[in-house]
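Appendix C: a fully annotated inverse folding record. The material below is reproduced so that readers can follow the format used throughout the book. The structure is listed first as tokens, followed by the designed sequence.
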């Protein structure tokens, strides 16, 4: 018996299994309807899949793909579905579509098929996972949406996309993060390991303390996990290990006294972000960093509420 490999049933199997194969594959003149040929349309008529889990596209990577498309064309047709108003939803191939527009193509090859809403999301999710294109939050949101649309359990959703149930469960936990920490995870400022350490802390205020130290001090996942344990045990000091402390000593500004560094750490713990105190105890500046609009709004609310 042949062993099935890959993600779930595989993307090709899903694409071949449309509920109503409307392969109106007409050839370049769009008039034939001969099976096995392709329909060529203006790429501006293609709309993103409403269930596309991917929200961010690397512009540099798109330009590289566009250069390849200029030289070789689009080798694999885009899978699309008619909307009914002369436009089409992309089921698979949004990167190719975006790159084709950058390359200035006047037509792109598509194959028309029709799928249920659940199947559209499943195809988009598998296509992105196979290419490792989703950030952790996008992947988590896609699993959640797939489970909601199909009324699936975590185990069933995992089977659909060829993942372990624990992988899906760990991804879904990330959706419990506050919005600004989710943004930091999406942007790569913190890793999923850091995020899970933050989520393991029961007190939301202590979660903020650890997030601030991850961002402000650049601590490792292992160190974050150790601090999370200490914070859960009631230690708000969250002392750093000797190895982490030694590493910090090599990177700290030698002109800063112990009092300035202590105050700086208090700001980090209170604000939950990177803070730099520059100057002396009598005079200087405080530099507060933010890493997303949500983070900026959160900091504004903190400063505003403290002044009332």
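Designed amino acids, in order:
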């Amino acid at each position: 018996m042949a062993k099935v490999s890959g993600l779930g049933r595989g993307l090709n199997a899903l694409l071949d299994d449309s509920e109503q194969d409307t392969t109106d594959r007409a050839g370049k003149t769009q008039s034939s309807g001969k099976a096995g040929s392709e329909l060529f349309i203006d790429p501006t008529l293609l709309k993103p899949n409403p269930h596309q889990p991917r929200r961010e596209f690397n512009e540099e990577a798109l330009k590289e793909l566009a250069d390849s498309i200029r030289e070789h064309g689009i080798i694999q047709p885009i899978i699309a579905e008619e909307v009914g108003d002369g436009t089409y939803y992309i089921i698979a191939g949004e990167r190719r579509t975006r790159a084709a527009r950058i390359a200035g193509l006047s037509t792109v090859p598509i194959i028309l098929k029709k799928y249920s809403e659940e199947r559209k999301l499943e195809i988009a999710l598998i296509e992105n996972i196979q290419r490792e294109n989703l950030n952790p939050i996008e992947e988590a949101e896609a699993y959640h949406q797939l489970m909601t649309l199909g009324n699936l359990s975590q185990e069933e959703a995992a089977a659909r996309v060829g993942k372990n149930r624990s992988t899906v469960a760990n991804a879904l936990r990330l959706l419990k993060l506050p919005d600004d920490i989710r943004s930091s995870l999406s942007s790569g400022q913190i890793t999923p390991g850091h995020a899970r350490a933050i989520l393991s802390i029961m007190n939301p205020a202590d979660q903020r303390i650890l997030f601030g130290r991850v961002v402000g001090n650049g601590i490792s996942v292992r160190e974050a996990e150790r601090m999370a344990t200490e914070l859960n045990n009631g230690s708000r000091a969250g002392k750093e290990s000797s190895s982490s402390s030694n590493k910090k000593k090599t990177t700290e500004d030698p002109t800063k006294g112990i009092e300035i560094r202590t105050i700086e750490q208090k700001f980090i713990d209170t604000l939950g972000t990177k803070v730099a105190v520059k100057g002396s105890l009598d005079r200087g500046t405080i530099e507060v960093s933010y890493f997303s609009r949500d983070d900026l709004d959160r900091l504004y609310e903190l400063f505003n509420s403290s002044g009332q």
